[in-house]
Amino acid sequence: MPAEARRHRRYDVADVRGSLLLSLDARILNMSLTGMAIETGSVLKVGGDYWLRLSQDGDPLRFKTTVQWCRLVRNEKGPTGDSRAVYQAGLDFRDGLDENARQVLAFLEKHIVVEVDRRLTGRFNLAHAKTAAIAVRHDFEVRRLGLGGIMVETVWDPAPDSVVDLEVQTPKGVVRTRGRVRSVLPAIGDHNGPPVFAVGLEFVGLAPEDQRSLTALVETLLE
Prior knowledge:
This protein has two domains: 102 residues, predicted glycosyltransferase like domains (Thrombin, subunit H), CATH 2.40.10.220; 111 residues, Thrombin, subunit H, CATH 2.40.10. The chain is built from two helices and 13 strands. The protein is mainly beta. The longest helix has 15 residues.
């Protein structure tokens, strides 16, 4: 966004970090005690870590998963008549379990049989279709910050105009809000490892308490 079009001034920032989270809707195809297969409208990175959120009797259930495989299965028409891709992916959430849960799971895999030679850790189809939300988290370092938006450096290059969830660490606590991607450019400077991008985001729906936290952070930059 051009500087002259901004309503709020942005300030250079150092040693402020946070995370970008992109949430995707998914449909659960089948699941087991160690993983599940889902269908979603976006390709998932094989080997990438994602956070899966399920609803259980109205209470959210959230845990870490790793993508084992992902493939394009078909193209279909969306609500507006445009063509969109549909992917299926296999998720493994054993690494997201704590040590006690892993020990219980290992015991079940070794000893429990629920039918003739059918183990409890086999795949099961759900009685009713279930939906889930899957999110990928990418850490960032803040380079410029204002009350209207933020410029961060991260290894992720989100699609322009997409809306992502934001978490920014401030002295007053974590600010959680949403941001619309306005620009994605290669980051300037020396960076080791994978490519780093400078991502500009405009805040969307900033809550009053989060705005106060950002204001306090900006004020510390002016001292």
